[in-house]
Every structure is written in structure tokens, then in C-alpha cells.
Amino acid sequence: MRNNPQTSDSFTLISGLAHELDSPLKSILARTRKLINDYKSRDFEFISYKDFKVIIATLEQIERQLEHCSQTTSRMMFVGKRQALLGENNCRINDIIRSVINEMGRQLESSRIKLTARLGKDLPKVTVGPIECHQIIHNVIINAVQAMPGGGTIKVKTSLDKAYGLVDIDVTDEGVGITPDHLPKVFEPFFTTKERGVEKSAGLGLSIIYSIINAAGGSIHIKSSLRKGTTVQISLPVYKSK
Length: 242
Prior knowledge:
The chain is about 45% helix and about 15% strand. By secondary structure, the protein is α+β, with helices and mostly antiparallel strands. The chain has a single domain, classed as Histidine kinase-like ATPase, C-terminal domain (Heat Shock Protein 90, 2-Layer Sandwich).
């Protein structure tokens, strides 16, 4: 029996989104349990300033994790909308980029990130569905945000390569960069440099978007310099209606 490519793509997409939820939910659970264990037997007729700061700091960390979960579940619900069926195999990349930036506005602000977008005019559609394209752009920008814990600037640029029939997307950050020994491994499933703390990752984001881009006949390349930043270069084929 031949595998249904659409079913396989759907499974990969949903699996990836589920993994994105797993890490922050575990972090929320751990932080909540610690807060309960630390304070459940305390007398709260009076609370010290130090205790108050600890509680508020923990709640702020939980809020950030819940915001990430909310964004992820929103994308899951987007999958179910009639206007964004997985069967669609084309979209306008600039519309997707604007949508992702709008969704991430609060997160970018709280992370002290300035995002600038130079989007090519009148770009043709690309041969990737809106759901998959949303996941590609969201994952790349999230990685850029996480690479700049102290804030900074992310630059997004789109353009048309007429000679090769491709739409190019470049996302550049000013982050910590990727070490030369890690760079060849970034597209491997479960490989991650985020092993600790609230940003711990399942290591599936880049491997999933690599699969999506490769299946569409596109390409993705990463250039990075340690402590200077990273540029993700994506090329997607122009959609040709039949």
C-alpha cells in the first residue's frame, strides 16, 4: 500500500506542534509544583518582600510559557479552519510573514526585540501551503528570538529570483550564533543546543521545517558566526497553477 503524502505531512505537522507544547507544559508543571511545595504550609497573614518577588517572578515565567502554548494551539486550530486546509499547496509568503509578526508582537516587545521587514512587492505565490509556511516562518523567528536573550534586532527580507523561479526569504539576527561543530547538525531530528532552563527544546523545529521545504522542492541554508549572529536563507519555488 502506498503512503498518502498528505496524511504523512499532516502527521509530521501535528507531531511537531505537539512537541512544541510538551516542553513549556513540563516547565509550567515543575514551576507550579515548586511554588506550591515552597508556600503551601506558610502563614500568609504576612508575606515578605523577598517572598513576593519570588512568587511574581515565577508567575511571569509561567506566563511566558503559557503564551508560547497559546500561540501553538492557535496554529493547531488554524489547521482546522476551512480556509486553510492542509490540501492547499500555495500561499503568499508576505501575508504569512505579516501574520506571524502580528501574532508575536507582544513576545517580541517583552523580549526587547525589534523586527524590521523588507518585503518584496508583488511577489508570486510559493509552492507551500499556508499552514506549513506559517510553521516555517514562526520557527525561524522563534529561534532568532531565543538566540538574543538580551534583546536585539531581527531583519526579515523577501525577494524574487526570476532566473531560478524562486522566492527568497532571509531572516537575520544579532544573537549568540552557532558553533562550527553544531552547524552541520542543526537539521537533525532531536538535535538542540537548548538543553536547560525555560527555553529547553525538543529539537524538532528545524528538522520539521527542513522536511517541509525539501518536500516542496525548496532549500534552506544557515550562515552563522559565533557571538555575531545567524542568517537563515530559505528559497521556495514559485507556484505554477495547472
